[in-house]
Amino acid sequence: MSEVVEPVEDGAAERPHRAIKSFVMRSGRMTEGQQRGLDQGWPQFGLQLEDGLRDFDQVFGRSAPRTFEIGFGMGHATLEMAAAAPEHDFIGVEVHKPGVGALLNGALTQNLSNIRVYSCDALEVLRDCVADASLDRLLLFFPDPWHKARHHKRRIVQLSFAELVRSKLKVGGVLHMATDWQPYAEYMLEVLSAAPGYHNLSADSTYVERPSERPITKFERRGERLGHGVWDLKFQRID
Hints:
Pathway: tRNA modification; N(7)-methylguanine-tRNA biosynthesis. S-adenosyl-L-methionine binds at residues 69, 94, 121, 144. It catalyses: guanosine(46) in tRNA + S-adenosyl-L-methionine = N(7)-methylguanosine(46) in tRNA + S-adenosyl-L-homocysteine. Belongs to the class I-like SAM-binding methyltransferase superfamily. TrmB family. By secondary structure, this protein is an alpha/beta fold. It has a single domain (49-237), classed as Rossmann fold (3-Layer(aba) Sandwich). Helices cover 33% and strands 19% of the residues. It contains eight helices and nine strands. It has helices at residues 32-45, 56-60, 76-84, 97-109, 122-129, 159-168, 182-194, 218-225, and strands at 3-4, 18-19, 66-70, 89-93, 115-118, 135-141, 169-179, 198-200, 231-237. The strands form two sheets. The protein has a seven-stranded mixed beta sheet, sandwiched between helices. A two-stranded antiparallel sheet has the order 1-2. α1 (32-45) packs across α4 (97-109).
């Protein structure tokens, strides 16, 4: 993520750097199920940023293909993917507590054991908790596009993001992004095409067809009925 450095007047002490966040913390009421997820699911599935670098083979009790998802929302797609691929492990990060509770409640209800959850800044988790060259996939589905030009610096997709993700993916690992806003899709394509060490998996070096492993959300179905598009991008780490 890029950082903002406030100008320093002559003779004034330099102010500390302030990292720009790509998300806004939102409050929301918790349903009974979401609260159950936090109360009963967090001790089983929750992970803490403060614990630092983790051995995820030890965390999951096995060695398996590993997917890291940034911003899982209410967790519907994560649950569907985890249920469909029990041989894969999923690490999800979300700052919105009702969404965290919903995912945890779903994991309990469906008796899933291949999900772990962080509730904090995903970039901090990547930097501090994930070993280099340890992920098979990183998913970024429908991130906030920050439409206004003055807010583009808040977009999570930046060259620094691409470089961080590449360092955490195994060689051959894939960064999969999706957005329903075409200007953001074009921006993502521009950024990742300029990032070293990646290969665009699209046949024409643009977008891929919606992969079968990415669940279609209710929001996406509604958008399709209204004629809205969705753009998927897949970039593979090649070195």
